[in-house]
Amino acid sequence: MGQHLCICARNTITIEDKRYFFIQKLEEGGFSYVDLVEGVHDGRFYALKRILCHDREGRQEAQTEVEMHRLFNHPNVLSLAGHTFVDRGGKSEAWLLLPYIRKGSLWSVLEKLRDKGASMPEGQILHIFQGMCAGLKTLHDKGYAHRDIKPTNILLDEDETPILMDLGSMNKARIEVRGSREAMTIQDWASQRCTISYRAPELFNVESYCIIDERTDIWSLGCVLYSMMMLEGPYDLVFQKGDSVALAVQNPIVIPQPCKYSQGLQTLLSSIMVPNPQERPDINWVLEQIQNLNKPERPDEATAVV
């Protein structure tokens, strides 16, 4: 891999022997920055994610994120166009070159709807949710879990195809916990890497002897489905008020009534958001239910007279 960097007079950078113009800053987080760049060779826009690696562990985590991107080639999982590690002023940065999705995140779409006092049509919810589940299925099928599914980690392209992003919290789907020390380690990890209001109940109080698996993602999926229906996450308010999310997630989800969405969609949501992971369905079951909901009603059934 071309691991060299060149910052020249016209603010160009080089990644894997290709040059890119710096256009503007897009966003800034605690550990990473995202810039908009343009490929000199193809004229296309890219999002350049720069991860600050404070130590060897940080560098390893960034390398893992690169490897996770490389594992998957799926329309609903964000691809990686290139990467490099850069040493600047004694500090190391990982640079991940990603496709630039102009429309932004699912969360930004939900915020606009809320501001307008509008809601998302059921057909649109099912379309987006089906794509999210298809992306997640490809992760689960390879034995991995995302661990931080939330509306800000889902991008929507021009035709509203959802794309799962931020693979930095991903790890092996199945984690066997043997003893209280391991349980505490996983609990601490989850509190840092899995967003609190979308975090599965079993990650708040990890039992000393248990198996954590990919069904943590199913819970988070349910929270995202709820947010598309209600334009806010089910535990956003609990968190904002300073109440205990850990306590709130122990109870079955309550869907505010009256609800404008079909009974089928409400039932799907209730089936996903089950506090006990052993009773939670897998991704294949969820996809099957979405397909059933997407089937048009047969004319003879719709007009049948009892």
From TrEMBL:
Enzyme class, spelled out: transferase
Gene Ontology CC terms, in alphabetical order: Golgi apparatus
GO molecular function: ATP binding; protein serine/threonine kinase activity
Catalytic activity: L-threonyl-[protein] + ATP = O-phospho-L-threonyl-[protein] + ADP + H(+); L-seryl-[protein] + ATP = O-phospho-L-seryl-[protein] + ADP + H(+)
Residue ranges annotated for the Protein kinase domain, each copy included: 20-293
Enzyme Commission number(s): 2.7.11.1
Domain of life: Eukaryota
Entry keyword Iron: no
Pfam families reported in the protein's UniProt record: Pkinase (PF00069)
Keywords assigned by UniProt, alphabetized: ATP-binding, Kinase, Nucleotide-binding, Serine/threonine-protein kinase, Transferase
Name the UniProt record assigns to this protein: non-specific serine/threonine protein kinase
Organism: Paramormyrops kingsleyae
